[in-house]
Design a protein that fits this description.
There is one protein chain. The chain is α/β, with parallel strands linked by helices. It has a single domain, classed as 5-stranded Propeller (L-arginine/glycine Amidinotransferase, Chain A), CATH 3.75.10.10. 22% of the residues lie in helices and 23% in strands. The protein has 6 helices and 15 strands. The strands form 5 sheets. A 3-stranded mixed sheet has the order 2-1-15, with helices on one face. It has a 3-stranded mixed sheet with strand order 3-4-5, with helices on both faces. The longest helix has 17 residues. Bound molecules: citrulline.
Length: 265
């Protein structure tokens, strides 16, 4: 298989609830507007579905203000799913809420469970040949070591890399575009972590466009970054732009809003 890292039959999403106004953020730029966010969320789900995928829409979890950002709760590979252990204390319980939904779709679901292990899905970039995990304020060496052991039986190798200082997650600054190609900020690519891949840089001043996703035939990008959008389109990808103004207030983007996978059953 040469496209398992970007061709998927399924996605899981979770609608934001009223508690979203209490979501974590590095800098307070104002409360997100729920109605606007729900509109963007619906557009996002429609884009995923337009590729033919089955998309599960879970109900809001009011007890967890950041629960819309489901990506951080699990890593989903063809052979099985790994339930994460989020490093943000207010998000730790979100992982257990996701586990039953994964068990309904996968024969094998394992979990990161060491008391000192922390890891969030936003720090994990799965490519065709490896899994890159960025150490960050949310993901530590113990979490990465546990993940490495969990995915080894499924034939995956993990490479530890670093999320730039002040950047929330590794994938805040990069996305997979195809088996060979990564969209990245210059500050992340400068670390050398994408050696051996083709890198398309986001335009200067448009760093937030780096959190995009390749989902089947689409590259889903946040709206409002025209120079980066043009670069991606010129490289031959089919673009779909989705509003992200409200999630951006909580440091969230296109990858955070879904788990994307093809379960073997
Ligand atoms: C957080 O700080 O955890 C949320 N406000 C944003 C999470 C974004 N998730 C992601 O990049 N995978």
């Amino acid at each position: 298989m040469t496209d398992r890292s970007f061709r998927f039959t399924h996605a899981i999403t979770r609608r934001p609830g009223g508690s979203i106004t209490g979501g974590l953020r590095a800098v307070d730029t104002g409360a997100p507007d729920l109605a606007t966010m729900l509109g963007h969320h619906a557009d996002y789900i429609a884009a995923l579905r337009s590729t033919g995928a089955t998309v599960l829409e879970l109900d809001p979890l009011e007890a967890f203000p950041d629960a819309v950002f489901v990506e951080d709760t699990a890593l989903c590979l063809p052979d099985g799913a790994v339930v994460m252990r989020p490093g943000a204390p207010s998000r730790l319980g979100e992982a257990a809420e996701m586990a039953p939904h994964l068990k309904a779709l996968y024969a094998e679901v394992v979990a990161i469970d060491g008391p000192d292990s922390f890891i969030e899905g936003g720090d994990i970039l799965t490519t065709e040949r490896e899994i890159l995990v960025g150490r960050s304020a949310r993901t530590n060496a113990a979490g990465i070591a546990e993940l490495t052991r969990q995915v080894a039986p499924w034939g995956y190798t993990v490479r530890e890399v670093f999320t730039p200082p002040g950047v929330l997650h590794f994938k805040t600054d990069c996305s997979l575009l195809d088996a060979e190609t990564i969209l990245s900020t210059d500050r992340l690519a400068a670390s050398g972590c994408f050696e051996g891949y083709r890198v398309i840089s986001v335009a200067e001043g448009e760093e937030a466009a780096a959190n995009s996703i390749r989902f089947n035939d689409l590259v889903i990008v946040p709206a409002g970054f025209p120079r980066t959008a043009e670069r991606i389109a010129k490289a031959g990808y089919t673009l779909c732009e989705i509003g992200n103004s409200e999630c951006a207030k909580l440091d969230g983007g296109m990858s955070c809003l879904s788990l994307r996978f093809t379960p073997k059953g």
